[in-house]
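Ops channel
N.P.: pipeline sanity check, posting one input/output pair.
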């Protein structure tokens, strides 16, 4: 019995055929487009956006007294981020300043003593000259009386008086010489003490500079223009020196993409090649980039435990070579790309083919 189809069945069949044809045509176009893309571009989806994300680290320990930023806040270079209780550091600075003043006062006392001893030495020098003259004159008198005594023109008592006077003058002369030598020696001793005090002042000034640095470290500021990331501190929290307190994204440097290409894809890649970057978050938007470096080794070579194929368990695995690509364009246009975003990278194959 011949089967008859209704008008509705024929219409459904016709529509189904058109839909199937459109799907097949679409798949064919998509396949051709995909194959053309693989032919003209070296592409990978193993790529992420990178940027300098640095921790904010305290160089001084203490209690947090103020937190002046919020997560994701834009900051400028020099903006205050955190304040640490600085009273202990200020007290250390003041103690060192007092020690410096004390040593400077000791230095003034030593300089005064040197001036006093120099005057004493000059006086002793004058006494030496006077004593020397007295001894010379008394020696002449003694010699004269001794000759007179030999000629019996002078008494023994007179000669003895001359001898005693000569001895006294000689003793006074020697005392003046000794006093002068002692004054000179004391001056040298004080000058040595002065050198010690000067060295101590230099040490204390260096220590004072260190204490001033410690006081300055209690005010933590932004090192550059950027955007704050995760915050891990609160007012009243006790922190140690070297402890990460927050993270800041540097807006003064370029953004770049690290694309991990297969080793079979990097044959024709060169520094300076152009690239197209498409982020998963913005599939309809293309960003331009430039290859700025190729890794000197595969990614696995920089791992904590690099593979060792000398054990005999060798299995050939296609390695990945990190390629660094700078994102070109104005900062405001590329700020939508955030650190860690997944992207697809396309590098034209024909740029350096012979």
């Amino acid at each position: 019995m011949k089967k008859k189809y209704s008008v509705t069945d024929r219409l459904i069949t016709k529509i189904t055929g058109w839909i199937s044809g459109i799907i097949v045509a679409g798949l064919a176009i998509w396949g051709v487009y995909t194959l053309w893309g693989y032919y003209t571009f070296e592409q990978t989806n193993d790529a992420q956006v990178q940027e300098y994300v640095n921790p904010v680290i305290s160089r001084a320990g203490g209690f947090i007294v103020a937190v002046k930023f919020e997560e994701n806040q834009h900051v400028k270079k020099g903006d205050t981020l955190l304040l640490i209780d600085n009273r202990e550091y200020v007290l250390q600075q003041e103690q060192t300043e007092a020690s410096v003043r004390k040593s400077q006062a000791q230095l003034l006392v030593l300089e005064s003593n040197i001036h006093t001893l120099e005057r004493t030495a000059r006086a002793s020098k004058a006494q030496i000259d006077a004593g020397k003259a007295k001894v010379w004159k008394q020696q002449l008198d003694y010699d004269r009386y001794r000759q007179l005594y030999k000629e019996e023109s002078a008494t023994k008592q007179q000669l003895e008086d001359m001898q005693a006077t000569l001895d006294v003058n000689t003793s006074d002369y020697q005392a003046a010489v000794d006093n002068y030598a002692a004054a000179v020696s004391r001056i040298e001793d004080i000058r040595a003490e002065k050198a010690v005090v000067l060295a101590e002042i230099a040490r204390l000034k260096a220590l004072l500079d260190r204490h001033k640095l410690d006081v300055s470290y209690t005010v933590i500021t932004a090192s550059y223009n950027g955007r704050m990331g995760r915050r891990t501190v609160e007012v009243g929290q006790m922190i140690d020196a070297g402890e990460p307190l927050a993270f800041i994204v540097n807006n003064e440097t370029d953004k770049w993409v690290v694309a991990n290409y297969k080793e079979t894809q990097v044959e024709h890649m060169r520094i300076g090649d152009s690239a197209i970057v498409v982020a998963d978050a913005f599939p309809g938007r293309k960003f331009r980039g430039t290859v700025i470096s190729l890794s000197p080794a595969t990614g696995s070579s920089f791992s904590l435990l690099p593979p060792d194929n000398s054990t005999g368990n060798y299995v050939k695995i296609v390695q990945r070579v990190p390629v660094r690509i700078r994102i070109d364009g104005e900062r405001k246009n590329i700020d939508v790309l955030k650190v860690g975003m997944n992207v697809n990278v396309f590098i034209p194959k024909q740029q350096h083919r012979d």
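N.P.: looks fine end to end. The chain has a mean pLDDT of 83.
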